[in-house]
Design brief:
Elements (H helix, E strand, L loop, with lengths): L1 H13 L2 H22 L9 H22 E4 L2 E4 L14 H7 L4 H10 L4 E7 L5 E6 L3 E4 L6 E3 L9 E6 L2 E6 L6 E3 L2 E3 L1 E4 L2 E5 L7 E6 L3 H13 L3 E3 L3
Parallel strand pairs: 5-6, 6-14
Antiparallel strand pairs: 1-2, 3-4, 3-13, 5-7, 7-8, 8-11, 9-10, 9-12, 12-13
């Protein structure tokens, strides 16, 4: 029962139920105050303000249900697909080929390096305070899903929360319509170029990770080969 209750509160927080109700109450309070001041000027009946408050109270459950079902964000009002869902289309990449066993490890490594894309060094500190890192030479996802090379164990993180990929000579990180957004160096982003060392956070409770862009070279190739040989996945748990 405690686990279910904790999960419910986490999901309500993810869907911003509390902040939505708070904004609704503040808005209705302001409206009632304005009605109380302006009502007599326009000849409103004596019970107008009380009626307005009663209607606001009756509409509160409707507001909660709508806040649970829909999300208002930068892309407008969209239906919430549930915890961890992603709106991003599935794309076939070298990472997909590797995970599905459709390409040989050395072939993937050679393909990445022949394109001169370098790699991304993912660095994080686990719950025990131990420093960890892994080098990834192809596109990868960050999120809760098992298909994510950088996997978070946090209910506030979407199944596919963000994607790191190489395009037009640069590495990018893109938020995949996540409810709790993606922060890069403290700034909310939708899509941004990764340069040098960047601090990335996908929820308030999850640890901040570092993404460092590595240039092509023998050392980078050796690091990618080690990753392909041992198939590590970054397991990042809340502190």
């Amino acid at each position: 029962m405690p686990n279910r209750l904790t999960g419910f509160w986490a999901e309500a927080r993810r869907r911003r139920i509390f902040s939505t109700v708070g904004m609704y109450v503040v808005a209705m309070w302001g409206l009632s105050q304005g009605a109380a001041e302006l009502g007599p000027v326009f000849g409103a009946p004596d019970g107008f303000v009380r009626g307005l408050v009663a209607v606001a109270v009756l509409l509160l459950p409707v507001v909660i249900v709508l806040a649970w079902m829909f999300d208002l964000g930068l892309r407008g009002i969209v239906r919430d697909p549930g915890p961890g869902a992603s709106h991003a289309p599935r794309e076939f990449s070298e990472t997909d080929a590797f995970n599905s066993g459709l390409a040989h490890q050395a072939t993937i490594s050679a393909l990445d390096l022949s394109r001169g894309i370098g790699a991304v060094l993912v660095h994080w500190t686990d719950g025990a305070g131990q420093s960890n890192s892994v080098t990834l030479g192809a596109s990868f996802f960050l999120g809760r899903g098992q298909e994510c090379r950088v996997r978070f164990y946090d209910p506030l993180v979407s199944r596919k929360h963000a994607r790191v990929y190489f395009e037009d000579g640069r590495w990018y990180i893109e938020d995949l319509d996540s409810r709790n957004c993606t922060l890069v160096d403290g700034q909310k982003i939708e899509r941004i170029v990764l340069e040098g060392l960047s601090l990335v956070q996908v929820s308030e409770s999850s640890p901040t990770i570092q993404l460092e862009i590595l240039s092509p070279g023998p050392a980078t190739r050796a690091a990618i080969d080690r990753v392909l040989a041992s198939t590590p996945i970054a397991h990042i748990r809340p502190k």
